[in-house]
Amino acid sequence: MKIIKVSDEKLSLRRTIESGTEKQQQAVKTIIEQVKALGDQAVLSYTKQFDGAELTSLKVTQDEIENAYEQLDDELISIIREAAKNIYNFHEKQKRNSWIDFDENGTMLGQKITPLDCVGVYVPGGTAAYPSSVLMNVMPAKVAGVQRIALTSPPNEKGELSPGVLVAANEAGVTEVYKAGGAQAIAALAYGTETITPVDKIVGPGNIYVALAKRAVFGLVDIDMIAGPSEIVILADDSARANEVAADLLSQAEHDPMATSILVTTSIVVAENVQREVKRQLQSLPRKNIAALSIEQYGKIYVTETMEQAVRIVNELAPEHLEILTEHPEECLAKIKHAGAIFLGRYSSEPVGDYFAGPNHVLPTNGTARFSSPLNVDDFVKKSSIISYSKEAFLANAEKITKLARYEGLEAHARAVESRLK
């Protein structure tokens, strides 16, 4: 990792959001059109082509779910249940209620909050297993009151889904699970097939084809976000332990060659020790090749003269994950304006939040923490305004309303009000 002594130049994590090559865009367009036209047949065909699985049915059966429990040890099932409970309890505190205000003149104004009817959750699969992605995407929807949650995930060559994914889905209350991945799964959730009923919103991470498909169907359905590569920024003073900082930086670097790991510190000693530790720890990582590429391309260590300058850099970067490893991390917290998730102190390593603590790990990337938030209960509800004017309130304000309408050149609006004055 390169050590950079920072002056006052502006820094940024922001990179162009991946839009894919022309070939990838065309491939996604073709897949979506085929799924719209042929339904299950197209999804099954693409599953054979891309995942090597020859399926006769897309839907996961109850027998397969029960078999998944047989394949997992009891301790892991217990951990999944505890994590699900933690995530549910955290998101339950986000839930908001409908409200109505009454005025003395008879005006009634309010907001009605209604959960979405149905949500689709995409979980990456194939050779990988991500039960944590299931829990993070499903639990806030359950808290919000979504009744129908359909999950899709690509199968392995044997036509199976990860036992961990199936157990997590069942524990989280998913009502339907399908063996489908890639752009074809997104198209099936958006447009529907003979087996899959369309949903109102699609959430969950995926590769470039999934991201392009989500972008293509947005408008017909809602989506959570177009997420970029994962990021971590660590803010540290001379109390930070180099081996722990290095381990946390590498925890993000192993995700993806384009993942970003950055240390911002006031201590040149910490910077140099972390630099050595990253190099040492890389050697024994199972995903060494991925992590090494990430560190080489996007890993940086910024050394500042003051903590105020360090905090300013963090706010400019607006990272997905921010760890504060200082002697008094709470003192820095109030000064942080832009971060997806903030981890305070050495015992709050980023995986604590990613897997177990309760806050959501679906976070804004690419500097978008400047204006957006983690996946939350509000993402699974819609708000309707309520307006009720009494005769007294209407008569008191009718002339003001007609004047505004005529100023905008909308005569019919003005007359709609005046028709009630006669």
TrEMBL record:
The active site is at 320 (proton acceptor), 321 (proton acceptor). Keywords: Amino-acid biosynthesis, Coiled coil, Histidine biosynthesis, Metal-binding, NAD, Oxidoreductase, Zinc. Binds 1 zinc ion per subunit. Residues 55-82 form a coiled coil. Its EC number is 1.1.1.23. SUPFAM superfamilies: ALDH-like (SSF53720). It is an enzyme of class 1 (oxidoreductase). It catalyses: L-histidinol + 2 NAD(+) + H2O = L-histidine + 2 NADH + 3 H(+). Its cofactor is Zn(2+). InterPro entries: Ald_DH/histidinol_DH (IPR016161), Histidinol_DH_CS (IPR001692), Histidinol_DH_monofunct (IPR022695), Hstdl_DH (IPR012131). GO terms for molecular function: histidinol dehydrogenase activity. It comes from the Bacteria. Pathway: Amino-acid biosynthesis; L-histidine biosynthesis; L-histidine from 5-phospho-alpha-D-ribose 1-diphosphate: step 9/9. Substrate binds at residues 230, 252, 255, 321, 354, 408, 413. Zn(2+) binds at residues 252, 255, 354, 413. HAMAP family: HisD. Belongs to the histidinol dehydrogenase family. Catalyzes the sequential NAD-dependent oxidations of L-histidinol to L-histidinaldehyde and then to L-histidine. This is Histidinol dehydrogenase. It comes from Aeribacillus alveayuensis.
